[in-house]
Input
Amino acid sequence: MFTFSLTLIRHGETQYNREKLLQGQGVDTLLSETGVQQGEAVGRYLRDISFNNVFASNLQRAVQTAEMILRNNTHCSGTAMVLEPLLRERGFGVAEGRPKEDLKNMANAAGQSCRDYTPPGGETLDQVKLRFKKFLKVLFKQMLDEHGWSRPDASTGESENTANGTAAASSDAALGGSADDGLQGVSVHALVVSHGAYIRVAIKHLVEDLKCSLPAGVKASQLFSPCPNTGISRFILTLSQSECGPVLSAARCVFTNRKDHLENLAAAE
Output
């Protein structure tokens, strides 16, 4: 058994986000001034979490956000960032660079909900999910290659601290929480910086397909709300060995879409 934490973060705001324009994969921009402030804020919030492995989409807005998180971190000065194309945003085809309202109109014309609609040349939600499943295989292999199976502190810590982590998670829905919620007794930590539509698909896969346990008092539908820029989600994953390689044997959601670190920025605006 091998247990580690997975912290998912959406990139900071871009000018396209501010103007409600779709970026997808074809529009590759840097962060806006607000996005830089958000990146610094989430970096300060997570500064004391010792991330062993860091993965980021290879689009500039995700890379820039991940760089700021690492720069602010007190433990990660020597940690290498892996740029992973599997973490890129959902492709929106002909809708990229256009207002989100255009996508809604295209979906309405096709008689579909905007969430489920795939514009010409874009990726379906199933294709995005397949990319995330491929990333999980990459992630599991790298975590085990680097950290091995024999981590009794991590695997026993997970079982002993499930109650504590769940309590923190349930209170988080109303009151916020600590940056290290869910990490007690877990000694290996992975950070992933990606994109809003991608993260939503990833969370749905973890919860609906992989039967991830939920924070107490939280419904699955509450976890699927849109992720804000630099929103933070965290899962505790336990792997076991099988004939086909490592498989996920347990998964627990600690929280999703947390944005405590943005409160002071909002007040300043």
User: Anything to note?
Assistant: The mean pLDDT is 89. The two ends are 47 Å apart (CA to CA). The CA atoms of residues 176 and 260 lie 6 Å apart.
